[in-house]
Amino acid sequence: MDAKPCEAKARSFVNGYMTSFFDLPVGSIFRILSLTSPQDVCRVSTVSSAFQFAADSDCVWKGFLPSDHEEILSRASCAISFSSMK
């Protein structure tokens, strides 16, 4: 068996084909992570480069911000500019 133990647990067979969590579309992985917590996203980012890529996405972090975050920031006494949603 050439798969690492953790990877082997994530694999399954669908219609006779071996699949893994990482066979999901990237958007689906972003959505799954956005349904967890910021702490969970940080933890999972250490598991693999694929999770690190997903955890770095603003698509994931935007879900943790209040829907009116832009309006909240506009009320700040000095201009606030961020390059990322993290």
From TrEMBL:
Question: What positions does the domain F-box occupy?
Answer: 18-64
| Alphabetical list of PROSITE patterns matching this protein | FBOX
* UniProt-listed CDD domains: F-box_AtSKIP3-like
Which Pfam families did the record assign? F-box-like
Q: InterPro entries this protein is in?
A: F-box-like_dom_sf, F-box_dom
UniProt-recorded name of the protein: F-box domain-containing protein
